[in-house]
């Protein structure tokens, strides 16, 4: 499989897409960021070309022509299903690799019943990609799954921690342990896939930086900041149920966030894939030390 040079990124303005765009530019790729709202003329920003699209088939075919790979990092919720049009447009434009917006827990083998329902549009898209690859053998896909993204959880407060206020919200006991990946590791994985596309054609790759619990993070944060944090407790099951209510009320962002927190942090379970299933070595990921990584988050 020939090397890729030109990469289009959808959702490249987002919290995960932004770091992926930066990592691709740093690795020497020509990057085109496809965004919904920038005005009619393409602009160059920080080494990437930004072009506007209304996400219609015609608009995307035009933008994707000349691109070898498309990386999607569009938001959770309705944009996930909208990726089918992106896949169709990519095939029509002669794109050879599509990386869909995944990056979380496995959507082909969801570890929890709630996740299975929540991830149904992602799972369906993979079926769609598989079918298209059978029909168009020069087209291929790769998915990257990393469990819960540590940086997103800590920066946005989703995991219950506020570094500036030294407060923590612990769900149930805080002892549930789960797979977690840093955003830099996820962005590096996208780069590795596109540098060596043959190794990852039509594969669902699992990566992980840590297996961790809220309690372990709190202990490390208290130690790093040399202070006792103010801790409050929330019932995870109530949060999970509230999440499904919010989703039914057409509030996908808060709904999805509450369901994930309520389900993932509930009880004392251990949600992690086996070490043997990981693609960390294949993708050249180095081991990350949790304490060192949290130190860098606290410093920034
Ligand atoms: N594992 C985890 O812990 C974790 C955490 C967060 C997210 N994720 C996953 O990572 C992926 C990206 O999520 P993210 O949080 O980075 O997304 P985000 O920042 O909320 O949004 C990414 C981009 O999607 C584009 N977009 C297209 N249609 C949209 C619409 N209808 N509403 C809102 N934005 C829209 C926007 O780009 P333009 O405005 O430029 O078009 C936006 O900047 C998703 O698959 C999500 O499930 C995983």
TrEMBL record:
<keyword id="KW-0560">Oxidoreductase</keyword>
<dbReference type="InterPro" id="IPR045312">
    <property type="entry name" value="PCBER-like"/>
</dbReference>
<feature type="domain" description="NmrA-like">
    <location>
        <begin position="6"/>
        <end position="241"/>
    </location>
</feature>
<dbReference type="InterPro" id="IPR008030">
    <property type="entry name" value="NmrA-like"/>
</dbReference>
<dbReference type="InterPro" id="IPR051609">
    <property type="entry name" value="NmrA/Isoflavone_reductase-like"/>
</dbReference>
<dbReference type="InterPro" id="IPR036291">
    <property type="entry name" value="NAD(P)-bd_dom_sf"/>
</dbReference>
<keyword id="KW-0521">NADP</keyword>
<dbReference type="Pfam" id="PF05368">
    <property type="entry name" value="NmrA"/>
</dbReference>
<protein>
    <recommendedName>
        <fullName>NmrA-like domain-containing protein</fullName>
    </recommendedName>
</protein>
<dbReference type="GO" id="GO:0016491">
    <property type="term" value="F:oxidoreductase activity"/>
</dbReference>
């Amino acid at each position: 499989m020939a090397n890729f040079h030109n990469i289009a990124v959808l959702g490249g303005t987002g919290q995960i897409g932004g770091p992926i765009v930066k990592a691709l530019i740093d690795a020497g790729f020509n990057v085109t960021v496809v965004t919904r709202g920038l005005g009619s003329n393409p602009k160059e920003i920080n080494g990437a070309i930004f072009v506007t699209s209304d996400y219609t088939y015609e608009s995307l075919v035009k933008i994707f022509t000349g691109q070898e790979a498309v990386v999607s990092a569009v938001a959770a919720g309705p944009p996930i299903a909208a990726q089918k049009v992106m896949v169709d447009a990519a095939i029509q434009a002669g794109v050879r690799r599509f990386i869909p917006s995944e990056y979380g827990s496995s959507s082909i083998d969801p570890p929890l019943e709630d996740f299975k329902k929540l991830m149904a549009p992602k799972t369906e898209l993979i079926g769609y990609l598989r079918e298209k690859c059978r029909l168009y053998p020069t087209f291929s896909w790769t998915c990257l799954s990393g469990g819960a993204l540590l940086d997103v959880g800590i920066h946005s407060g989703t995991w219950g921690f506020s570094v500036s206020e030294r407060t923590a919200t612990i769900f149930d006991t805080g002892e549930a342990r789960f797979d977690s990946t840093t955003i830099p590791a996820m962005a590096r994985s996208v780069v590795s896939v596109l540098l060596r596309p043959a190794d990852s054609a039509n594969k669902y790759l699992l990566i992980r930086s840590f297996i961790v619990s809220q309690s372990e993070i709190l202990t490390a944060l208290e130690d790093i900041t040399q202070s006792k944090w103010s801790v409050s407790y929330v019932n995870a099951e109530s949060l999970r149920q509230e999440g499904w209510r919010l989703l039914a009320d057409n509030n996908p962002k808060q709904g999805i966030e509450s369901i994930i927190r309520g389900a993932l942090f509930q009880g004392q379970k251990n949600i992690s894939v086996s070490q043997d299933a990981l693609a960390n070595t294949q993708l050249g990921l180095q081991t990350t030390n949790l304490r060192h990584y949290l130190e860098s988050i606290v410093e920034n």
